Structure formats: structure tokens, C-alpha cells
Amino acid sequence: MTAPASQPTSFSRVPGIAFIFKKALISALVALVLFSLMIGIRTEAGPTGQLIFWTRFGDLASMVAIVFGGSIVVELLRQWWGPVETVRIVPPSAQNAMAIGRRAIAPVLLIFTFLVPVIFYDQRYILDLGILVLTYVMLGWGLNVVVGLAGLLDLGYVAFYAVGAYSYALLSTTFGLSFWVCLPLAGILAAFWGVLLGFPVLRLRGDYLAIVTLAFGEIIRLVIINWQSLTGGPNGISGIPRPSFFGIPLTPGDDGLAARLGIEFSPTHRIVFLFYLILALALLTNWVTIRLRHLPIGRAWEALREDEVACRALGINTTTTKLTAFATGAMFGGFAGAFFATRQGFISPESFTFQESALILAIVVLGGMGSQLGVALAALAMIGGFELFRGFDQYRMLVFGVAMVLLMIWRPRGLIGHRAPTVFLERNQAISSELTSEGRG
């Protein structure tokens, strides 16, 4: 009798110090090659048109050193967390604390958002930044319906954003309609265009679907630029009316809200009102999305995302499922566009480029497709991150790209990946052999 072979342990072999330094050295050499022309040498056009350049070897050495040290830190963190198939080194107490923290993030973040106008009432910059972040949170939640729940890659989502903005601008300036009347109309018109986009792409998927949606976004932008008699062309539309508090204007006059409440007028009142308005619209988007996920249409979206062939085999009408996903996501994009128009008071085609679509899609992907909280955190990190690095124009996109790469390495499904089905069996159920015989299943 031979001794039984030793069973493989569940722990993977820990790389040695030499392996870590070798990997860090390779990363530093790659960074040296990539950054030598990007950072090491700076070129500009001289006063007489000739090309002048100067070297920045100190900055290049600093960047290579950061990559070298960061590679070592990344490898050490990987050993601490451990790969997916091994036992984690994180103690159970820390895991419980992290679980409690994840559950508390959403209510704490919501309470803080409600208190932002109170805490930062005298800081106009913080309030404007909060409005911008909430706008992208709403856009991310709207695109999350199409990409995260239905699994349809949409690169032209900014088109619905533009349709909502121009719908409100044209209706309010031409017919004198108020914001509260134009808001649902802008959402309906954007949903109509979402259905129009859905019909040509019913049989497309993957890269082909992305190309068509990208072309749709560019078509809308070019139509806005060239239809000058309606949209104003490159000049845009100005003089867009501001929203009122259900018919009461936020002006310093006697008929204004401040005079009716008997308080001193301040221009900050309108900013605070806009903040709570976009917060209400974002929460409405979140609530509707969560409710739809538990309805049959939401479960059909999830089935379509996982496997379209299996979805057809189950008897689900994929045509209706895709069209409703595009229409629902487009409607929320139209709402956000209407708010953007009334907040800015002026819109032009430069505000609805492909870069906006890419930014919204990046928010959804990095936050976690299908995760409402992840999208909100990603919007806060990306929009707020852009503002934090505004003073470092030369390195802002570089730092942003490095952060995206690291996130994709550690969290390939996003900050908070959520692909669990809405309805599932809590425990396995045995099926009798009589039910699986020929003619019964």
C-alpha cells in the first residue's frame, strides 16, 4: 500500500522578495519608456514658429520612482488580501467591521448630502460642485438601466441628455412654459428618441451595438449644430428661464419667495433650491430604478444581460425588453438635460460631446454595473477628483488613468459590483426523477 498523495493546500505560494523587486523593476522600465517623451521632454512652438524643447529629467525620475514603489506596495497588498481562490488574511473582526461600514455608507452619504447646503451655505464653489456631482449621479443611474441592468452598451447616451436640454430650452423660450411643465415633456421626448434608437439595434450586440449608439450620439450633435433655424447652431440658446418654486420666483422683488417668507433675499437661495431640486430628481431616478428591478420588466432586463439566447428560450420578448430599457434610460437622461438647461441658462452643442458619454459610461463601469451605490461613489470620486487635480493640469489625466487601471486590477467589476439576480432560490430544491422523464421536461 502506498501512502496517499498529499492534498494540495488552499494557500498559494507567496512570492519572494526577489520576485517582487523584479516585477517592480520591470514596471519602472516600462514607465521610463512610456514617460520619457510624455514627461521627460517638453516641446512647444516658439515665438517665431520654430519648435523649442526642454528636458524635465527630474520629473521623469520622480514618476519612475513612484511607479517602482507603487508596484512593490501593490504586490504586498495582494499578498495581504490574497487571491480569490485562497483563504483571506484579513481577520474576521476586520471583515465584520468592513461589512458594517458597507451597509452604513448609503445612509451616511444621503444624510451628508442633505446637510451640504446647511454646512457649506456660504461657499458657492462647494454648492456648485455638489450640483454638478448630483447631475452626473442622475445620469449614471439613468445609463445604469441600459448598461448595468439590460447589458446594452450605449456610447451615445449624451444624445438623450441633449434632447432633454434642447426640448426644455425651446419649449420655455418659444411657448413660455414653466420648468415644471417642460420637465415631463423633456423626459417623454427623450424616451421617444430612445425608442427610435432601439429599433435599429434590436439585432445588434457587443461592439456593433456600441458603434451604432456612438453614431447616434454624433448624429444628434451634428443635427443640433446644423439646424440653426431651430437650435441656434453653434451659437446655442440663451435666456433660458430659471425654475420657480411652484410658480413663485426666486427673485428679490415683492413677489419673490424671500419676500413672501419675510426673510432677506440672497442669491444663494436659488443655488440651494437647485441643489435640492437635482437631489430630488436623482432620488426619484434611484427609487424608480429599484422598483423596476423587482418588477417583471426588471427581471427581464437582468435575464437579457446574462444571456440573450436563454432569454429568448424562456419566451421573453427581447424586442420589448430592449426598447423599454432604452426608453427608461433616455427618459432620465432627458430629465437631467432639462435641469442642466435651466441651471445654466444657456446651452450649446459643445456641452454634449462624446467625452460626456465616455465620462458617464466610465462612472457606471467603475462604480459597478448594476450597483446604485457604486455609481454614486464613482461619480463623487471622478467629478470631485477632477476638481481636486484642477491645479495640476499636466498630470491630472495621468493620475486619473493610473487610478482607473489600479481599480480595474483590484475590482474588475467596479467599486461595488452587483450582478446578483433579483429573484433566486434561497436553498436548493430536489427534482423528482419522474418529472424529468421523457415527455415531462
**Uncertain spans:** 1-13, 83-90
Identify the CATH architecture of the largest domain: Orthogonal Bundle
- Helices and strands: which structural class? mainly alpha
Q: Please state roughly what percent of the residues sit in beta strands, choosing from under 5%, 5-15%, 15-25%, 25-35%, 35-45% or over 45%.
A: under 5%
Terminal residue distance:
47 Å
Highest-level CATH class of the largest domain: Mainly Alpha
Biggest pleated-sheet summary: 2 strands, antiparallel
Number of strands: 4
Number of domains: 2
For the CA atoms, what is the radius of gyration?
A: 26 Å
User: Number of helix segments?
Assistant: 16
Global outline:
globular
Strand order of the largest sheet: 1-2
Helicity, as a percent range: 55-70%
User: What pattern of helices and strands is seen along the backbone?
Assistant: HEEHHHHHHHEHHHHHEHHH
User: In CATH terms, what is the fold-level topology of the largest domain?
Assistant: ABC transporter involved in vitamin B12 uptake, BtuC
Mean pLDDT, all residues:
80
What can you tell me about this protein's structure?
Helix content is 65%, strand content 3%. The two termini are 47 Å apart. It is mainly α. The longest helix is centred in the N-terminal third of the chain and has 28 residues, at 92-119. It folds into 2 domains: 17-81; 124-410, ABC transporter involved in vitamin B12 uptake, BtuC. A two-stranded antiparallel sheet has the order 1-2. The chain has 16 helices and 4 strands. It is globular.
